[in-house]
Specification:
Length: 103
């Protein structure tokens, strides 16, 4: 009768097993995802560029209407600055009240 009792023996060799990480694989995944994102952004930018540079029909507003709109904007801006000038002149020309502290 030969009985081997192995639970009391010390293990002489310790190994990690197959739980080895492979950093080169993860770097490849990161590079692949980065390349795909860059490619997609270039494609999106190209189609956006094509959409922006399409010929647009701006002839719906006639030349006279454009001039009228410009004149109205210019006149409103000039009126605003004229009012500001008048207000500034009133402030400069009005005598400032001096309060006598001795009273």
């Amino acid at each position: 009768m030969n009985i081997n009792i192995e639970f009391l023996k010390k293990k002489k060799k310790f190994t990690k097993g197959d739980s080895k990480l492979r950093p080169d694989l993860y770097w490849r995944y990161i590079l692949l995802v980065t390349f795909v994102l860059i490619t997609l952004s270039f494609v999106f930018g190209f189609f956006l560029f094509l959409d922006v540079t399409k010929d647009r029909d701006f002839s719906t507003i006639s030349v006279n209407e454009r001039d009228t709109l410009k004149k109205e904007k210019i006149n409103s801006a000039l009126l605003y600055f004229k009012e500001r000038e008048n207000k500034s002149n009133e402030i400069l020309n009005s005598p400032s009240m001096v309060i006598d502290p001795s009273l």
